[in-house]
Amino acid sequence: MENHLGDATADVVATPFPVISEWQEAVDIEGVKLFMHSFTDGMASAPLRTSRFTIRPGCGTQEDKHAVREIWFISEGTVDVFYDDGRHPVSAGQAVFFESWKPHFARNNGDVDAQIFSVWWA
């Protein structure tokens, strides 16, 4: 297998590349940080949206319900996800799916910040 990494910086091509920017959205929830992703220009019509959020140990999100379906991918930490009248422990490397209009929220039950990537669509 050839290694092309050495050549990658030698021939930089200045073509448009769809990088999705991230910005921190202000939230009034102790221990929670929310980072939204910006779908602009040619990506504005994408059929989904994404964000990332962190939850400090012992903290949690507020209950949410909405018209869209959603998947959370947990990349760090452990959380208890409250969904469909149950508590579900979820760890890094796992994902959870929420149907439209089903209330859900998470609480960090571990000792490190939980990092969650969210994808939603109609």
TrEMBL record:
Alphabetical list of Gene3D superfamilies matching this protein: Jelly Rolls (2.60.120.10)
Q: Name the source organism.
A: Paraburkholderia sejongensis
A UniProt-annotated Pfam family: Cupin_2
Check the record and name the InterPro entries matching this protein: Cupin_2, RmlC-like_jellyroll, RmlC_Cupin_sf
Return the protein name: Cupin domain-containing protein
Cupin type-2 domain location is: 52-120
